[in-house]
Specification:
There is one protein chain. With 838 residues, the chain is α+β, with helices and mostly antiparallel strands. The protein folds into three domains: 102-461 and 521-526, no CATH class; 577-685; 699-837, Galactose-binding domain-like (Jelly Rolls). The protein is 48% helix and 16% strand. The strands form five sheets. Strands 10, 11, 13, 14, 15, 16 and 18 form a seven-stranded antiparallel beta sheet that branches. A five-stranded mixed beta sheet has the order 6-5-7-9-8. It has a two-stranded antiparallel sheet with strand order 1-2. Strand 3 and strand 4 (156-159) form a beta hairpin. Helix 2 runs parallel beside helix 7, helix 7 crosses helix 19 (432-451) and helix 17 (385-397) packs across helix 19 (432-451).
Amino acid sequence: MAKTSAPKSKKPSKSDESLSSFSIEPGTKVQITIEAGQSTAGKVPINIRMEHLPLDGAQGEGAPPRKKEPGKAAAWLKARFEPLIHLLKAHDLATWLFIGAVTIYLATRLIGLTQFPIYFFSDEAIQTQSIADLVKNDYRDQAERLLPTYFKNGEYTNLGVSVYLQWLPYIFFGKSAFFTRATSVLITLLAAISVGIILRNVFKARYWWTGALFLSITPAWFLHSRTAFETAEFTAFYAGTLCAYLLYRYRSPRYLYPALFLGALGFYAYSPAQLIVPILAIALLVSDWRYHWENRSTLLKGWALAVVLALPYIRFRLNDLDAPIAQLHVLGSYWVQKTPVLEKVSQYFSEYGIGISPWYWYQPNDRDLQRHRMKDYGNIMVATLPFAILGMAYVLRFLRESSYRTILIAVLVSPVSAALVQTGITRVLIFVVPAAILTALGLERLLQWMTDLRRRVAEPGDGSVPAPGQITLGAIILLAGCALAYFLTQTMDRVAVAALAILLGLQLSGALERFGKWLIQTPMMQTWKDWRLPQSFIAVAIFVILAGANVSMLSNALRNGPLWYTDYGMGGMQYGAFQIFDIIKRYQQEHPNTRIIFSPSWANGTDVVARFFLDDSLPIELASIEGHIQQKLPLDDDTLFIMIPDEYNLARGNSKFKDIRVEKIVPFPNGAPGFYFVRLRYADGVDEMFAAEKAFRDILQETAVTMDGEEVEVRFSYLDSDAQAQSIAAVFDNDPYSLAKTYEANPFVIEMTFPSKRKINGFSIIVGQTDVQITLKCYSAQGAQPVIYTFEGQGTQAQPKLSFDLPGTMEVEMLRVEILNLLSPPPTNVHIWELLLH
């Protein structure tokens, strides 16, 4: 039964005390049942029922004759099954159903683990690959830091605990896709167990085990808990943190320490947690400040533990002060764009609203990428929405209770980090934890009413009238909720908010209770006076339904999942990791002298995935056929290209190639060609084609950019971009995170012609981690002889910006800057993030 709040009773006076007594015959065996009725006018009616039971082994007068002693066979069977019977009696039905729920959870995750999801993403491979690199480098990162706090994932520095969790699996099993995912699955089990414990120990729910099953059939969780994405592990630690905190509130103050530890694991597991965890901690600190003050000695020790747990992050930030801002730039957050603050705030609340929107969670959407969705499912099953609404109404009704406030806080905190960029399922996945709890509480409330129907029908109404304040408050909530629903744009949001407002308004005003009492006193309900479903029957029936939903979802995913979406390339499912590398290994064994060039364009981070499956000594080259189209590269009959369909079509239609031969086609799940194994040759006259293209790229491009409020004519080397003018503008936009890079030119030439003479005495340039030689040619007028200065410098990760001063102030009308990368001969890409004259 769900826990409800009630006013604290005063110490009863002697006149309020009552004593009931009765007698029984010595040796009589009885069963006494005490039933608490529905609270009426501040009082709870108590019914006591006594039943006489036959004595074990007794043979009374008129009793049936004793059965014969069992034979040897029966005795043997009884002896063999005695341990099982004893084990079954050791726990109640609810506990066994919870054990069954956990078993189903694990089974529906581990079965077919490498078959669904059909991709093995670079964000999964990087977990084990990072720990493999760390072990190989004596547990130091590339900067020689021992046991680094975070690891690189492409441009992001966002991997932490999720990498270290792969240490033991890597030590024992090496680089295995199954064990990489299975490790994450076992971590996510913490979420299912935590939800169950919260419902049992905190909310005292009768059907507490349903929480694990509701979580298990949440489609977004079903998919992501079968991957090695760090967001799933963070969600598990988030659930564990909530569980430990509520046990701290309702069981023992000592649970504060595991709450802090689990919160720290979540903090270091996923970069958005660096905002979510502190906000959650502050909200809980404010919510229960009185309880914290009563246990301030424990709280002080908790603060000390929190400081210790924060030391790895402090070390990380001291080495990388701009990490959070850099992360926002890499993610393309609107917060780092040059837009008005009010517009940013408005967009934040818009994204935040999506993160808690029933439309986003319960209705199939196109907002999330295909590889993060289960076709025809919402992120949460829509059939569970009524229970979640009922659970939320229950939570809002009892907000004075810390447990209910905590669940509401967990809901509201979920999107705070995602809203900084764009709400997506991986960034708000933690929402599924409080959602599962709300759903279980809603079902609990409904089943509680159903199973107590007989008693409710038998109870007479007291005729009490709700207080005017209750009626007013209920009416205000009802009207405000319906008004809010009217202004929402999504139909599902409107229905959900209106339903919640109606439930809460009627409940607070007392109208819902009075309607219920009237309903159960109607003649039709009176005919059900003796109707009662056993709790065990209801529990088993609910278990069978939810377990069946789990099995059905698994079967659907394994059977139909590969065909849900047919975009198997970079923008879609990124299919191929589980299939193509085994085929490459076999092909190479059969053709040891063949040079294999494998396209990286079918997925993100294919270099990481290739290292995961083929190890560091890659027997292949990762490159696209486009490289052989853009410049003449070595090509003979022993060269094999593995191309994606777009590249194959590009090669077939290009006049630079001839004798195109397809040796093998690896199909996609729907039968369409996925990867082409191709051999080809350069066509006759290809040298002239390349020479003509090179001559065109050697011509400096021209555009106008704004510098210090004036328009400057700029000529520059051909860039690796489809938008030449836009790319060169990034060098002068005062944004150290935007860049321009040459297509092949080294040095990178930038020629600026000012509308009037300009005084300069130095410049700053951001070149990244490289050694450069910078030549400055200063022209006082068009056609004049230049004054030439040469500088050299080395950019580092800690200081990629170089600054140089001229011997004196120069007045120039034209300035030519040549940036030569000393480490890479041409053709190469020269990168410049920013150029600032001063």
